[in-house]
Amino acid sequence: MASKQASAQGQPGQIEITQLPVAQLNELKTQLDREIAHLTQSHTSLRTAQAKFRDCLLSISSGVSSAVASKPLLVPLTSSLYVPGRLTDAEHVLVDVGTGFFVEKDVASAKDFYERKVKDLGDSLKDLESVVNEKAKNAKSVEDVIRWKVMSQGQGQEAEASES
């Protein structure tokens, strides 16, 4: 967004926020707050997805082995619905690759898939955190300018009153 530093460098499409009236600054602040809230919600969703992939990794590591093959286990159909089952193949698993599609993979490939997903989501989270931090800095800059303008207007009115 627009900031004092960016406009001083003459970057196209940016304006000096100190030149905006307080009403427009308030609108800009509101927009930045909405963007920060949306990005924070996205951050939470990515963290949740990353945790699910980590759970999948843990399930494969601890639950898929020839020792478990003969024992009964509970198979999740949804997050709250489990049905009894047995592991028929300790070498292959079904991997949810998104939008309800499953692919059969060997255990090593499934682990690799989930590890890559966790890493990719971690990278996306870092990028998103930097965007949120930049938006927060912009919002603080706008707040500072609003505060400065309101205080300047208040001092101007006090000076006019003392001259009268």
From TrEMBL:
It comes from the Eukaryota. InterPro entries: PFD_alpha_archaea, Prefoldin, Prefoldin_subunit_alpha. The keyword Secreted does not apply. This is Prefoldin alpha subunit. Belongs to the prefoldin subunit alpha family. Keywords: Chaperone, Coiled coil. GO terms for molecular function: unfolded protein binding. The lineage of its organism: Eukaryota, Fungi, Dikarya, Ascomycota, Pezizomycotina. NCBIfam families: prefoldin subunit alpha. One of its GO terms (biological process) is RNA polymerase III assembly. Pfam families: Prefoldin. Residues 111-145 form a coiled coil. Gene3D superfamilies: 1.10.287.370. GO terms for cellular component: cytoplasm; prefoldin complex.
